[in-house]
């Protein structure tokens, strides 16, 4: 996956509520994304829809992503989903450490284990980081750096280059508030500076960064061109095929 080509991932979260609606949305997204088009596009439906959505996107350039994974492969772990099960369904990306999962108790150590398991089985982790709120003193930078350094404790430079980091300021998720293009650009530079300190310049330049947080058709182009990230992790707007397609076209 070339870093020079943007990546757009639609996180459907706990939507829609019927299989028919999920299949309909998958067909609409897939029909609008031809194989020759860029950027890379992936959708992350709820676990129960992965199989059927995968069937509808298989012949298109739209890949399949999962919203989470467990760090054990098999066994007595009621309600969990293993990386082997996801791989069997044709999943390529796995979202890990989303703020909504962290709010339910997921720790940095849990994120570490899930990332390692995902890389081991050659799927691509999309690791979410981001501050809950911004302060005028800039303390939120320290919070983001801590999350990156926690990943770096268990990942070599080569492994770090294989993951995707999704910067999602929590205050901008589902709130209608959006970081400005300048905010996104500032964070892109900061994340690269941390990766440079922890690893080296090559690792920083070769780790894909996404932005997520109220990305919409009317702000996608500016956020992409001026924010200088390598794509988006899209929430609500990915539930409407026309809006999601407009975001895709904004970075094409």
CATH fold name, please?
Answer: TIM Barrel
User: How many helix segments?
Assistant: 11
CATH 4th-level superfamily: Aldolase class I
From the 3D coordinates, which CATH architecture would you assign? Alpha-Beta Barrel
Question: Your description of this structure?
Answer:
Strand 2, helix 2 (50-57) and strand 3 form a beta-alpha-beta unit. The protein is α/β, with parallel strands linked by helices. The protein has one domain (7-241): TIM Barrel. It is built from eleven helices and eight strands. It has an eight-stranded parallel β-sheet with strand order 7-6-5-4-3-2-1-8. It is globular, with a radius of gyration of 17 Å. The mean pLDDT is 94.
Summarize the helices and strands and which ones pair or pack.
Blueprint: E1 7-11, H1 19-31, E2 40-44, H2 50-57, E3 62-66, H3 83-88, E4 91-96, H4 99-102, H5 108-120, E5 124-129, H6 139-152, H7 157-160, E6 164-167, H8 181-198, H9 201-205, E7 208-211, H10 220-227, E8 231-234, H11 241-250
Helix pairs in contact: 1-2, 1-11, 6-8, 8-10
Produce a short descriptive summary.
The protein has helices spanning 19-31, 50-57, 83-88, 99-102, 108-120, 139-152, 157-160, 181-198, 201-205, 220-227, 241-250, and strands at 7-11, 40-44, 62-66, 91-96, 124-129, 164-167, 208-211, 231-234. The chain is of the alpha/beta class and 252 residues long.
């Amino acid at each position: 996956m070339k870093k020079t080509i943007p990546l757009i991932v639609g996180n459907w979260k706990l939507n829609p509520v019927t299989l028919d609606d999920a299949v309909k949305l998958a067909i609409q997204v897939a029909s609008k994304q031809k194989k020759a088009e860029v950027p890379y596009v992936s959708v992350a439906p709820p676990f129960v829809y992965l199989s059927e959505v995968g069937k509808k996107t298989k012949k298109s350039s739209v890949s399949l992503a999962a919203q989470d994974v467990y760090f054990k492969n098999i066994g007595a772990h009621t309600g969990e989903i293993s990386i082997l099960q996801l791989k069997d369904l044709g999943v390529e990306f796995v979202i890990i450490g989303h703020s909504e999962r962290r709010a339910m108790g997921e720790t940095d150590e849990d994120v570490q284990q899930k990332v390692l398991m995902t890389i081991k089985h050659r799927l691509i982790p999309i690791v979410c980081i981001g501050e809950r709120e911004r302060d005028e003193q800039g303390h939120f930078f320290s919070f983001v750096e801590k999350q990156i350094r926690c990943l770096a404790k268990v990942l070599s430079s080569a492994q770090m280059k294989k993951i995707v980091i999704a910067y999602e300021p929590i205050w901008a998720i589902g709130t209608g508030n959006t970081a400005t293009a300048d905010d996104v650009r500032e964070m892109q530079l900061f994340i690269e500076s941390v990766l440079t300190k922890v690893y080296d310049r090559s690792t920083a330049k070769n780790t894909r960064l996404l932005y997520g947080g109220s990305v919409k058709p009317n702000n996608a182009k500016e956020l992409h061109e001026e924010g200088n990230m390598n794509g988006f992790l899209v929430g609500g707007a990915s539930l409407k095929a026309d809006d999601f397609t407009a975001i895709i076209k904004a970075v094409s």
